[in-house]
């Protein structure tokens, strides 16, 4: 009985060290009323990196900071800003790092876009050489 | 076919291997620096976090003398670690203003009663709005701001005793 009661008490325990006692930001987990705006906000949120949990998008993350970012994105889009304006507002503060869709504007970002194409071309060229060689052997 | 071409796949694999090895051996750099350093403080006005200290707006950060802006939270453990250093800075005559991140008035008051209150003004940022505007990605962070409201420096993480001289120097340079 004692054991059962103590287990019951565990069920009622409240996490003492919860990160924050506050409710989430207004639009962290609430969709915008206009479905078109919500879709635009959603698409952008998939492409913004969470600052706390750095391998997730803010759409994916449960971190309170990601919730605040989602709310900020939705509020800005509801106020009439375009997704690209919101994205560049964040890039201005955190750098290209914050976006999963980085622009081709620096020595750091161009290999992201062109390295796969170059590697594919190199592979085709190598493969072509090998096919031709095996034909010659016959 | 050129003989050296035979070695190309091995060389490519070697480069790939080296890239992965370097990535595994060097710990991931999780620090995201704000791009707002060198730029003016974005305009904001936050309500007071506790009754005993006034609210904080961007106008309070351009009063002609350099100030520190500390972003903290009662739920943040490293913020406890930096409390003695902040008190030392305040005793050295530095004006420190603060933004309480995602916090309640009771929690902030308890935190400051327990660990000391070095702050002149404390604004409460319940939805990280101002934190995002200054390019801060966590707590604690401390910004050095010159008398014209330009962000001069961003210190990420808790202020350790060895960081205090550098902050004092930066504040003096911002004079």
What is the CATH homology-level superfamily of the largest domain in chain A? Cytochrome C biogenesis protein
Instruction: Enter the CATH topology name of chain B.
Output: Glutaredoxin
**Name of the CATH first level of chain B:** Alpha Beta
Radius of gyration of chain B: 22 Å
Broad shape of chain B? elongated
Count of discrete structural domains of chain A? 2
Binned strand content of chain A: under 5%
Structure description:
Chain A has helices at 2-12, 35-46, 64-78, 83-94, 110-137. Chain A is an all-alpha fold. Chain A folds into 2 domains: 23-102, Cytochrome C biogenesis protein (Helicase, Ruva Protein, domain 3), CATH 1.10.8.640; 104-138. With 175 residues, chain B is α/β, with parallel strands linked by helices. Classes of the chains: A mainly alpha (138), B alpha/beta (175). Chains A and B meet through helix 3, helix 4 and helix 5 of A and helix 4 of B.
Topology:
The complex is a heterodimer of chains A (138) and B (175).
Chain A: H1 2-12, H2 35-46, H3 64-78, H4 83-94, H5 110-137
Chain B: H1 8-25, E1 45-46, E2 56-57, E3 67-72, H2 77-91, E4 96-101, H3 105-115, E5 122-125, H4 129-133, E6 141-145, E7 151-156, H5 164-173
Parallel strand pairs in B: 3-4, 4-5
Antiparallel strand pairs in B: 1-2, 3-6, 6-7
């Amino acid at each position: 009985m004692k054991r059962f009661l103590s287990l019951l008490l565990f069920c009622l325990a409240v996490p003492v060290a919860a990160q924050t006692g506050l409710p989430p930001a207004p639009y962290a987990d609430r969709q915008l009323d206009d479905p078109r705006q919500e879709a635009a906000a959603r698409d952008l949120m998939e492409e913004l990196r969470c600052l706390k949990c750095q391998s997730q998008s803010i759409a994916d993350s449960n971190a309170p900071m990601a919730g605040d970012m989602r709310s900020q994105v939705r509020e800005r889009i509801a106020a009439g800003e375009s997704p690209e304006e919101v994205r560049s507002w964040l890039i201005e503060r955190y750098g290209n790092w914050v976006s999963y869709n980085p622009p081709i504007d620096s020595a750091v970002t161009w290999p992201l876009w062109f390295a796969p194409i170059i590697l594919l071309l190199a592979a085709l060229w190598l493969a072509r050489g090998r096919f031709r060689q095996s034909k010659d052997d016959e | 076919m050129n003989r050296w071409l035979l070695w190309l796949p091995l060389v490519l694999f070697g480069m790939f291997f080296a890239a992965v090895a370097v990535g595994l051996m060097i710990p991931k750099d999780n620090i995201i620096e704000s791009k707002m350093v060198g730029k003016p403080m974005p305009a904001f006005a936050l309500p007071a976090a506790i009754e005993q200290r006034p609210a904080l707006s961007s106008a309070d950060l351009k009063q002609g003398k350099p100030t520190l802006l500390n972003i903290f939270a009662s739920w943040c453990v490293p913020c406890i670690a930096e409390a003695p250093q902040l008190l030392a800075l305040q005793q050295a005559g530095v004006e420190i203003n603060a933004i309480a991140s995602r916090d309640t008035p009771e929690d902030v008051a308890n935190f400051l009663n327990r660990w000391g209150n070095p702050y002149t003004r404390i604004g409460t940022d319940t939805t990280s709005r101002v934190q995002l505007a200054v390019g801060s990605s966590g707590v604690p962070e401390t910004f050095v701001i010159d008398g014209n409201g330009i962000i001069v420096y961003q210190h990420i993480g808790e202020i350790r005793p060895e960081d205090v001289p550098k902050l004092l120097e930066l504040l003096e340079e911002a004079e």
